[in-house]
Specification:
5-stranded mixed beta sheet, Beta Polymerase, domain 2, DNA polymerase, domain 1, 14 strands, alpha/beta, 23 helices, TIM Barrel, 7-stranded parallel beta sheet, globular, single chain, 550 residues
């Protein structure tokens, strides 16, 4: 027999999905009211008589029949019928706090969103702001609700933990200025997805516990480790060691098990610091973010010249309020200039992306005129005329050549029809890559970390196609994407493919996501020389000129 919680769950889902499909409103209210009041009943429903159930406010004969059906069969025919015509992702969206069936219906029918991942991505792109019944506050609440769900899964995007970790480490070091304190583990390696913040110190555990208590941070000690929770949600592991063992423990806890194995590391090895140890093993000091046990010890892996955030000269792939961005073209440009970038690439959505306010040709031409006027005003800073062109189902770009030829560059991306096999994905991607107007392949797999797997591709095959056609590949720096995955950067560099670390910014503060993109790029050993937007302005202009003349 299904327990009360299981029965209530099905009654609640039925009420929500029935409302989503505009079923009889009186029946919907009856089921919702019954479920609300049945929560107060502790006695197993299947042991209650019909009369006892009917005595519960809101419970009518149809609800009793449904309870009996669910209790006996574990299912409800009316619910099953509605579920059959409702995408599974919509059912998940209905569970998000603050989203009732009416709002979900708008999300589904107006924006064609059918998964939680797509909903979060739409919020990131500000696509809900202009929809009737929504707004900036509602959109922010939806994001918080989804992220809370992610928190429950025990996984975090690195960028989400970065700020609380930074604040905590700063306060910790201030409290113990003479101590050795540093990040370690996967956090020090800047792993794209994490379970916790990890910090090592040579501070007495009792003093650490006292510090946490003074900061109102719940903490618990167990065998040299302290687990704590920042802001009632962010998990921290504090490793306490003695001063003499600090360097060894820091090195040992930083590298992945695979990295340590490939180094033939043992606890009997003698060394005073990381640099000295790598030297003994025949390597220069290896940056922490690369210690994953992948290609970093390969003789052909680069040893220096890795890209740094401060070396990025341009910000490519950005959206304005011409499509689904929050800021105007002027605001995006002036902020980029204030951050000491030399150039900005505007890439609003193309015409097929109606859900994102995609630009019809005349609107795109209007934006080009505004860019030219701003360039005269803001020189020597320069705005480049671009677009994020949808890759259509047949692999073609979203404008005629007469329009594409007027642009400085094109980021080609797939946004629709993501549920495809590898053969279809390859057909679309390669055709777009072979288009002479494609400059950069945007977020190659369409993945959303912790939310949605990307469509399947053979990365080597796609990289080879880019190499053959002189097309760059985007490392989309948004923390939910970080796509292309850093593990494929060594192969891309081997094939001579330039990587562009793009923020995919939908508001001006989004430029700073390139910091996280740079960390991912360094994991894969991306060199400054192989980073498109690390080119100074003149070199980037020459690159685009050469592309047009091919």
């Amino acid at each position: 027999m299904m327990d009360n919680a299981g029965i209530l769950g099905k009654l609640n889902v039925y009420a929500k999905i029935a409302e989503l499909h505009n079923e009889n409103p009186f029946k919907i209210r009856g089921y919702a009211s019954a479920a609300f009041n049945l929560k107060k009943i502790k006695e197993p429903y299947h042991l209650m008589s019909d009369a006892d159930l009917l005595a519960v406010p809101g419970v009518g004969k149809s609800v009793v029949e449904s309870i009996r059906e669910i209790s006996t069969h574990g299912s409800m025919a009316a619910l099953d019928a509605l579920m059959a015509v409702t995408p599974p992702g919509i059912v998940e969206i209905l569970q998000i706090k603050g989203l009732g069936p009416k709002k979900v219906a708008v999300i589904w029918n107006t924006l064609q969103i059918e998964t939680v991942g797509d909903l979060l991505d739409a919020c990131r792109q500000n696509r809900l702001v202009e929809v009737k019944g929504f707004g900036i506050k509602t959109q922010a609440e939806i994001v918080r609700s989804i992220e809370f769900s992610l928190m429950a899964q025990g996984k975090w995007h690195y960028a989400r933990l970065w700020q609380p970790a930074t604040d905590f480490l700063e306060a910790f070091k201030k409290e113990f200025p003479e101590a050795q304190i540093a990040y370690t583990g996967a956090f020090r390696r800047a792993a794209t997805v994490l379970e916790q913040i990890e910090i090592i110190c040579d501070v007495d555990p009792n003093d650490v516990l006292a510090f946490c208590d003074s900061q109102n941070i719940p903490s618990e000690y167990n065998d040299g480790e302290i687990t704590a929770t920042l802001n009632a949600q962010y998990p921290v592991l504090l490793l306490c060691t003695d001063t003499d063992s600090y360097e060894r423990e820091w090195f040992e806890t930083t590298g992945s098990a695979s990295h340590l194995t490939q180094l033939n590391y043992t606890r009997s090895d003698s060394f005073s610091n990381e640099t000295q140890y790598y030297g003994v093993k025949g390597f220069p000091w290896i940056p922490p973010e690369q210690r994953e046990g992948e290609e970093e010890l390969n003789p052909n892996f680069p040893r220096e010249g890795f890209v740094e955030f401060g070396q990025l000269k341009g910000v490519l792939h950005n959206h304005t309020n011409y499509s689904d961005g929050l800021n105007s073209l002027r605001e995006m440009a002036e902020y980029a200039k204030s951050q000491k970038f030399e150039y900005l690439g505007i890439c609003d959505h193309s015409q097929s992306a109606a859900y994102a306010g995609g630009l019809k040709p005349e609107r795109l031409l209007q934006q080009m005129d505004e860019i030219e006027a701003l360039n005269e005003e803001l020189t020597p800073f320069k705005i480049f005329k671009g677009v994020e062109s949808d890759i259509l189902f047949d692999g073609s770009l979203d404008y005629e050549n007469a329009i594409l030829s007027k642009l400085d560059f094109v980021v080609a991306s797939i946004h629709s029809g993501l549920n495809m096999d590898q053969e279809k994905a390859h057909l679309r991607l390669v055709k777009a890559i072979e288009n002479p107007y494609t400059t950069i392949l945007g977020h190659p797999t369409g993945r959303l970390l912790l939310l949605r797997n990307g469509y399947p591709i053979d990365h080597a095959y796609i990289i080879d196609a880019c190499a053959a056609n002189g097309v760059c590949i985007e490392l989309n720096a948004h923390p939910y994407r970080l796509d292309i995955d850093w593990t494929w950067l060594p192969y891309a560099q081997k094939k001579g493919v330039l990587i562009s670390i793009n923020p995919d910014a939908h508001e001006k503060q989004g430029y700073h996501d390139m910091f996280f993109g740079t960390l991912a790029a360094r994991k894969g050993g991306l060199l400054t020389a192989n980073t498109l937007n690390a080119m100074p302005l003149e070199a980037f202009e020459q690159f685009l000129k050469n592309r047009r003349n091919q």
